[in-house]
Structure prediction request, 223 residues.
Amino acid sequence: GQNIDQPTEMTATEGAIVQINCTYQTSGFNGLFWYQQHAGEAPTFLSYNVLDGLEEKGRFSSFLSRSKGYSYLLLKELQMKDSASYLCAVIKRNYGQNFVFGPGTRLSVLP
Amino acid sequence: DADVTQTPRNRITKTGKRIMLECSQTKGHDRMYWYRQDPGLGLQLIYYSFDVKDINKGEISDGYSVSRQAQAKFSLSLESAIPNQTALYFCATSEFGGNEQFFGPGTRLTVL
Prediction:
């Protein structure tokens, strides 16, 4: 089966660090993506992890542990423009290499 | 710039009407996808196509049909729209052998 969980909402302060978790239970795992989506807009790519460990890209980092079925997205030096939904998506090898998306986490950054 | 476009961007229709949503891409990608998004439910895959002669059902294909008219065009039809099909619809593309998907701007559909 497939089950992807993320917290529904999070709040953080401008300049702070926030960690958004994603847990998954799925067969045929073949990678995990994080996308950012501002309200009413298209999702945009943030990161891709296929091997265990941390991938860093500027203020954003993503971590994967395949044995634990766990990933997190770390956002540093938060800015107001980071207020958005963050979508975790798992690629399933036995689902045509398609994505299965989590419900998304809505992050609000407060001044 | 190579892009993914969707038309219309907004549509209000009545129950029972036939609706077509269009997606075009200039990325040259073989693979195209249709998703719907409902508040709190994330993105759910409706249909996907890996090339012009290939059409596959996703998680929630009931009530929908698709047509892949060309490599660059993938349309989604609602033969007889119903209110619970009110949602935000996204088209996406990806390269053969690639993993990242590129999304269009979305179509907001309201069925009254």
Remarks:
- Chain B has no helices and eleven strands.
- The mean pLDDT of chain B is 93.
- Chain B touches chain A at residues 33, 40-45, 48, 50, 56, 58, 88, 90, 99-106, 108 (CB under 8 Å).
- The longest strand of chain B covers residues 42-51.
